[in-house]
Amino acid sequence: MSNPLVDPTALSLSAVARRLPGRNGTHANPSTVARWVHKGATAPDGQRVKLAAVRIGGTLYVTERALADFLTALNGPATTEVPPRSPAARRKAADEAVRKLNQMGA
Questions:
Q1: pLDDT greater than 60 at residue 3
Q2: CA-CA distance, 29 to 40, in Å (whole number)?
Q3: Is the pLDDT assigned to residue 5 strictly greater than 80?
């Protein structure tokens, strides 16, 4: 359910919960999302991170951006960068490639 007064991407806590995985193949519970709004969750560095929400009437709404920021704060930014290999790992990979090429007759 969205509320265009807030943001076209605004979702109720129930709608946010339905988007998130829960245990045993179900979705997250709306009370979990409410707890994140009120008390927050602990990030890996030990800081408490709260899910930003706005109340209109008696309903709390969370924007897509607020949810993305919350999840990023808990999990860290997504990285596509591959960590560099150690010299020993590079040497081992090169030796393995040479071995395979020799087996192929190249």
A1: no
A2: 15
A3: no
Tokens standing for residue 39: 């008390």
Contact in structure between 43 and 49 (CB atoms under 8 Å): yes
Q: What is the rounded distance in angstroms from the CA atom of residue 60 to the CA atom of residue 29?
A: 15
pTM for this one? 0.66
CA pair distance 100, 80, nearest whole angstrom? 28
**One-letter-per-residue 3-state SS of the chain:** CCECCCECCCEEHHHHHHHCECHHHCECCHHHHHHHHHCCEECCCCCEECCCCEEECCEEEECHHHHHHHHHHHHCCCCCCCCCCCHHHHHHHHHHHHHHHHHHCC
Taking residue 67's Cβ as centre, other Cβ atoms within 10 Å add up to 20
pLDDT value of residue 79: 67
Dump pLDDT digits (tens) for 28-65: 999 999 999 999 999 888 899 999 999 988 899 999 99
